[in-house]
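call fold(seq) -> tokens
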Amino acid sequence: MSLLIKICGLRTEADVNVAVAAGADAVGFVFAKSVRRLTPQAAAAATASMRSDVRKVAVMRHPSDEEWQEVLLEFRPDVLQTDIEDFESLAVPDTVQCLPVIREGSPALAADLPDVFLYEGGNSGQGEAVDWEKAAATALRGKLILAGGLNAAKLGDAIAIVRPFGVDVSSAVESEPGVKSAALIREFIDAARAAEQST
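ret:
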């Protein structure tokens, strides 16, 4: 199984085109409070011509079901990513994959884990790294997508230690907060594929 690479916090069609051409498996759009936040309509427009084999991820945090239903209707994501406890109050159709976020130190770690989950620190999109050794132990319990504090220079070590199912990046591929860099996106994906080959 090849390493899943998700580029998150995209805002424009140009960003999407760069990420897809560089080899991203999934692209994330933020509908939570963030400098990267955009409307469901804008996300739909940015992905209108995207290949169908690349996964569209709606990234939320503690949304109401009403907020989620608007994103579902207007954006039509393949995946909903939000904190694990949020799913209890959301109506998610079978056509949408659930990607629970489990944060470092969360009480959810004491229970059985979902098959696939995203693992990060307390604050999304802030470049906040997690303890890779703890993440490695957690990765033995399910398909862990590692997020937080990753960049092209750190990827080799992170992947070698954690052996994640996937990696996720947002702030480290930006020229300034909320503005993606085509060069940094390509560099990150190239580094991820190179690290995957060497593990």
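DSSP finds six helices and ten strands in the chain.
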